[in-house]
Amino acid sequence: MPDAARMLWTPHAWLPQGWAENVLLAIGADGRWTDVTPGVAQAPVHAERLRGPLLPGLVNAHSHAFQRAFAGLAERRERERDDFWSWRDRMYRVALRITPVQLRAIAAQLYLELLQGGYTQVCEFHYLQHDLDGTPYADPCTLAWSLADAAADAGIGVTLMPALYERAGFTQPRLRPDQRRFATTPESVLAQANAIAASGRPLVRAGLVVHSLRAAAPASIHRLRRQAEGFRGPIHVHVAEQTAEVDDSVAATGARPIEWLAREGLLDARWQLVHATHTVPQEIDSVARSGAGVVVCPTTEANLGDGLPDLRGWLDAGVPLAIGSDSHITRDWREELRWLEYAQRLVLRQRNVGADAPREPSTAQRLWQRVQHAGAAAAGEPAWGLVAGGRADALLPDAQDPALRGVPTARALDSLVFSSPGRPWSDVMVAGRWVVRDGRHPRANAIAREYDEAMAPLWQAD
Predict the structure, then answer these.
(1) Which of 116, 124, 136, 279 has the fewest CB within 10 Å, making it most exposed?
(2) Residue ranges of the domains in the chain?
(3) Beta-carbon count within 10 A of 227 CB
């Protein structure tokens, strides 16, 4: 339930139109903002006074929670060449060991860190499905419930999205032995999504996933699309992350991955194209016409050597652009935005690539507005941000953060993103409840202890 104090007042808050002064916010019994009013010079007596500046929380639009157990542990090159595919093989070895209890502990630690990094909702692209030997659990949602329990432990919102995953590649009709825990069908993932949606768990939403074009046959993708005609949640898909995937798609289907999705008439506003790193202008145009969104994961894409998305192309086309932390090598949205911009600067040898002068001269503010808006659709949330109807999620920076010293509020986002390293968020609210206060989470020690206990057996054989 939301806190007893139903009103907040802050000297500065980030509203959809930008920074506003003297903002009064009201929280309803459902944990959503009922009213957001700028220009209230004096805080009402019954309102909780904040020191500001207040920002909305952000949706982390792409997560594989179990990969938190792998973060930082694949940074050695043990043979002549190391790339995405060799990283994937090592990651599979970890995926084959994780139990439901361990997954809950790992995910809870991750979700706590995401809260500290400014995320208040996370989209779980969920493809770890079965028992260690590949046998289905009696309850197909067993590992999904581990993730939901972990989200409740931390106090974050979660969109659980079971993945269609049925083959090892375009020309490999079956899964590899080390993919045995991933096997699903269109019917099984839709049944899982419906069970999640019907569970009534607080702060839990449901979505669907097609793992990738290489991992699902065209007939199965179409079957899932038909069966999900009335499904209102988001539909995510890994697409065009690696050039090898693009080449294989052309060889197998005669089309690039995004080109194929558009050609087959699959895309609509529910669809989220994760990575979409390697594109041509015609694909960007087709996505823009469809209403679909894109989810970029800059630190993972850098860590895996994926390549760079066409940032200007996506922005100029008006395609919704969300961010995610994917493999969780980084767990702070400020660093994701920083990497998104800096990588473009290095390649183009220009500055403020993400800005749009003279209308939107601030790179941080333009990117922030875009990912705020796009994150709602990626998570299946009807509204987002400090607006009436949006969930009452909010962030307060640490008052002692050196990034903000001497900086006027109008430039606070610029400094928060590009003056680093910043401190974790001091206060984090989710659905009207402060889950982090003064940098402290009430379950931080217990979550850390359970995480340590889960990690020890995972790595004792390595």
Answers:
(1) 136
(2) 7-56+386-438, 58-379
(3) 15
Tell me which residue of 103, 48, 82 sits closest to 433, measured CA to CA: 48
The domain 58-379: what is its CATH number?
A: 3.20.20.140
> Assign residue 18 a region: left if phi > 0, alpha if psi is -120 to 50, beta otherwise?
left
Give the alpha-carbon dihedral of 348, 118, 387, 358, to 10 degrees: -20
Whether residue 5 is predicted with pLDDT greater than 90 in this model: the reply is no
Instruction: Give the pTM.
Output: 0.97
Separation between Cα atoms, residue 390 and residue 383, nearest integer Å: 5
Question: Which whole number is the average pLDDT over 144-170?
Answer: 98
Q: Alpha-carbon distance 214 to 97, whole Å?
A: 24
CA distance 139 to 154: 24
Q: Point out the residues that are catalytic.
A: 275, 326
C-alpha span between 112 and 429 (Å, rounded): 13
Q: Which two tokens stand for residue 90?
A: 């090592």
Confidence (pLDDT) at 281: 98
DSSP-based three-state secondary structure for 71: coil
